[in-house]
Amino acid sequence: MSLRYAKRMDNIKASEIRELLKLTQKPEIISFAGGLPAPELFPVEELEKVSSKVLEEQGTTALQYGPTEGYEPLRVEITKRMEKVGVECKPEDILVTSGSQQGLDFSGKIFLNPGDIVLCESPSYLGAINAFKAYEPEFIGVPTDENGMIMEELEDILKNNDRVRFIYVIPDFQNPSGRTWSIERRKRLIELANEHNVAIIEDNPYGELRFEGEYYPAIKHYDTEGRVIFLGTFSKIFCPGLRLGWVCAEEEVLNKFVLAKQGSDLQSSTISQMQVAKFLEEYDIEAHIENLKKVYKKRRDLMINTMKEEFPEEIKFTNPEGGLFTWVVLPEYMNARDLAVKAIEKNVAFVPGGSFFPNGGNENTLRLNYSSMDDEKIVIGIKRLAEAIKSMMKESQKA
Amino acid sequence: MSLRYAKRMDNIKASEIRELLKLTQKPEIISFAGGLPAPELFPVEELEKVSSKVLEEQGTTALQYGPTEGYEPLRVEITKRMEKVGVECKPEDILVTSGSQQGLDFSGKIFLNPGDIVLCESPSYLGAINAFKAYEPEFIGVPTDENGMIMEELEDILKNNDRVRFIYVIPDFQNPSGRTWSIERRKRLIELANEHNVAIIEDNPYGELRFEGEYYPAIKHYDTEGRVIFLGTFSKIFCPGLRLGWVCAEEEVLNKFVLAKQGSDLQSSTISQMQVAKFLEEYDIEAHIENLKKVYKKRRDLMINTMKEEFPEEIKFTNPEGGLFTWVVLPEYMNARDLAVKAIEKNVAFVPGGSFFPNGGNENTLRLNYSSMDDEKIVIGIKRLAEAIKSMMKESQKA
The Aminotransferase class I/classII large domain covers which part of the protein (chains A, B) (predicted)? Predict the structure, then answer.
């Protein structure tokens, strides 16, 4: 017996990262592979308190169906988060989603016919590419440098492709590269999107986790025609286990997202939304974020400094100003997938970078996460990784 | 500015029920419109206790990312629920979803190319039709009688349409009709599906809420080739606010659902899954379900008996053996949408039945929910509805 599946299923592969994460759940593994926030910083006690309060005060509401758009007090709280990235909006501009991943799926559902083109940074977030693939688009990876997408390249691509439906970007501490877009590029992106009538999907899970320097306004801050769809999440500033994120967009576009939500799962968890709203009302999320930043900054410094000390000179890596990831570029003759096998033998895991390129190639790159391992593990893990790199280099020279 | 949306968005309309529910949230309205479980029966205190326990004992795990497939102890508990409907399965056959609505969306995503055909009962669940519409199928509503789909009609349709990808059915206490499939029809459905190599989506949110008579085995119980995909949910036996449901299917098919889940929202809420698993371990869900059945049976009896007393003889309605709904058929010259306007004036709400027919028509039908209103409101509401019906009949006779 073999059932007949939709054509789109030929495109959808298991996420290499999620599969890798399964392999690396042994406790002896030092994992730089996932994008996990540090669990020891989760506000567990506070959540227990608000959880009890919500159930005591509004138990039956918390366990009942609620509106598709989301729990009103949480939508109000989300407008405050949007303010922090320079976006003024009303609660009606917010749809609560099950993580920002759901916003990615809906973006594909709403905008993409088969054969339409998605532009994204090269490299880009694997989970987004996988979500969009279900809607059978083609991908063009736009070359990037340390200031984000290269605007001349983007302009060229837009001029030569009239089936571009949206440009997908992660402007702050990008996953996987750790890079941040300059303000000039943000403004220019809006001009080009206006000119070519395409939407922009701005995915911003890490924007509030800036360790140094000044906050840049979100791309949506510069939006003049309501064509930027902003995806936010509580996963990185609060915790991912509750699965709560949001879409912020103008009325016409947001209505489409609400329709997608209705068909997909009716609504996000009523009780989780009430818990997070209550937490934001009763506790100081800004202080919590400050603490996250302090810890993550220290871990980043430790990882970067250990890499500087231990890695051979030919190995390049980014020094992100925030977020969870740094990006390593090996010499071109090296393959990060082979390195990953060697590293796993030494009980160290990371994600090879090739998967982050929608059109393939770049097998000499890899992504390292520094948020989820403690100081000692970061040092040991990077030292082991350095050994693996050096031994691979030696083998290549012999061959 | 107008962005260009995917063609599929032309098909997707706001659910009439969800829109209606918004209008009927005024406290003075007696609503038979939604499909809401009785909130006063939610196990609020028990949930508060398990919630605290989960956070105290495994707080960091509960708030962290978890596996796409679902929390293992919950998958084990779900196999016990499947046993109750006569399906033996392993935890690996279960994917935890965000309500069974998400299983419907994934069914469309996995099986449907544009123009493929979905067969469903006529009438059928509006939320399923809306979910499938995103994948641009055509619908054929198969005629039904008091024992489910009429098998001769189904066979004819299968013989004459080679693009049928799946048959969508709600065999127990169907939404909206309240009807239950006979065992003979269940068996015959499997034979026909095998013969024509189509999948069956068995949506079973109410199966455990049988007030009288014996349980029928799920259609999946009779599945000989692994072509039945069973969708279950905790919404009706526990509470809907947590948004937890499941898919039970054979390995090959379930893998496709897991891929869909990964792209759509990575996973369902870790903490909610742990809470429900803990509840099922520590409390007696069977006793809870017995209590639900007792209350709902009483409300059904009250609604049916009041309708018998108050409605004119020409009005027909089903007497469901379980679930949440009864189905009313007015004389053909009457329109239930007009009646709904009249009823709302009397502060009574219901859902006109026309929307439940994928190919339209049947405007003289309506759906009544008896689970969410207390005894007094049921009697008052039905009396008011009877008045509205009688006054509309009089007007028609005059005209």
Answer: 48-385
